Amino acid sequence: MAKASPHILVVDDDVVVLKFIEFTLKGLSYKTTLAKNGIEAIDKAKAEHFDLIISDLYMPLMDGNELVRHFRNTPEYKHTPFIFLSGNNEEETWIKNLNDGADDFITKPIKQKVFVSKINSHLKKAFLRKEIIAGKEKSDISYEKGTIIYCANRTRPFPIPRKLVKTNIKVVYTDSDFFMALQGANNWGIIIDDAAAWAMVILDKIVEITSTHVPLSLLISDPADSEKMDEFLKLKISTFLYKNLDAKLIVHQINSNIQREHELKNKYLNALNTAAKRSPIRFENEFSDELNDFQIRILHEPYDKLPGGDYYEIINVDEHCKIVVLGDVMGKKWDAWFFVPAYIAYIRSTINFFLNRQEFDFVKSPGKFLDIINQYIFKDMQLTEVFTTLSVISICTKRNKISVASAGALRPYYYNKSEGTISQLNIVGTLLGVIKTTKYQSLVHDFNKGDKVLFYTDGYTEAVNDKNNEMIGDDALFHSLNKFKLDSELQPQDIEEELTKTYNVSKFDDDRTLLLVQRN
Question: Fewer Cβ within 10 Å of end Cβ, the chain: N or C?
Answer without folding.
Answer: N
